[in-house]
Amino acid sequence: MEATIEQILNIIDNNSDIVFFGGAGISTESGIPDFRSTDGLYNQEYDYPPETILSASFFKSNPKEFYRFYKNKCLKPMLNSKPNATHIALAKLEEIGKLNAIVTQNIDDLHHKAGSKNIYELHGTSFRNYCIRCGKEYSIEDVMSNTEDYMRCECGGIVRPDIVLYEEGLDNSVISKSIKAISEAKVLIIAGTSLIVYPAAGLINYYNGDKLILINKDKVKNEDNIDYVYHGLAGDIFRKVLDKYK
Ligand code: NAD
């Protein structure tokens, strides 16, 4: 059912064992474009759709084009972005013992920067990079400042971000911990995600409770199965959470 901001705030007030499941929409208010909003990366002109460029086979066959897109469209906005009210409020809810875990599809490190501790990054992070030949690690700054067509290690191997590319599987231990957290949650808040990318989106099916909340700008599929739906910005709600608990 459609829910008001007040109803969602009341559920947060009256419960602990909350788990948060988020996606790219959580970071749009920090200036990082998502994929599927009207101003997201899917609605801009490129030679290939983002899903193709950010796939394992494309990375292998065309690392130059991969890095051109990835650096301009993903890394550049991430590098100087700061956590917004939603990231900060979630860190606060964890600190005061209401929130057990954040399960995120994001690769932008903003939950860490906000101070959250128990974070399951389903798709890895752009802030770690490694050589596929020798394993040497590189920072995001190393990757951004590299002027070659694509990043190579001093051993000659190609450097890749520690993110899960399309066509690759998720880390089993991250999946198990996410499933455990979601299945034990009293409240599950889903926010800023189109729930289109699998297997990540399927994890919400492990929730067993009766307080499933969706906070999303646009409609998503199967909203009828969700207990409380708010169509709007995550910041509309979490700015108020922050006011209350800061
Ligand atoms: P998506 O782009 O498919 O969907 C984002 C959803 O968030 C949309 O439904 C949109 O309506 C909603 N939204 C946008 N701004 C919002 C806001 N301020 N408040 C509430 N809702 C908002 O994103 P997805 O489902 O996460 O899937 C995209 C995939 O791409 C993920 O796997 C993710 O790893 C990756 N990605 C990550 C980032 C990042 O790390 N910040 C950015 C882009 C894409």
Features:
single chain; three-stranded antiparallel sheet; alpha/beta; six-stranded parallel sheet; 246 residues; binds nicotinamide-adenine-dinucleotide
What does this structure look like?
By secondary structure, the chain is α/β, with parallel strands linked by helices. It is 34% helix and 17% strand. The chain is built from nine helices and nine strands. It has helices spanning 5-14, 50-53, 56-61, 63-79, 85-95, 110-114, 140-145, 172-184, 234-245; strands spanning 18-22, 99-104, 119-121, 124-131, 137-138, 159-163, 187-191, 212-216, 228-231. The strands form two sheets. Strands 3-2-1-7-8-9 form a six-stranded parallel beta sheet, sandwiched between helices. It has a three-stranded antiparallel beta sheet with strand order 5-4-6. β4 (124-131) and β5 form a beta hairpin. α1 crosses α9 and α5 (85-95) crosses α9 (234-245). The mean pLDDT is 94. Nicotinamide-adenine-dinucleotide binds next to β8 and α9.
User: Which ligands, by name, code or SMILES, are bound?
Assistant: nicotinamide-adenine-dinucleotide
Please give the count of helices: 9
Biggest β-sheet description: 6 strands, parallel
Morphology = elongated
Mean pLDDT metric: 94
Total E-strand runs: 9
Low-confidence stretches: none
The neighbouring-strand order within the major sheet is 3-2-1-7-8-9
Percentage of helical residues? 25-40%
Global Rg: 18 Å
Strand composition percent: 15-25%
Distance between the termini: 29 Å
Secondary-structure element order, as H and E? HEHHHHEHEEEHEHEEEH
- Going by helix content, strand content and strand pairing, the class is alpha/beta
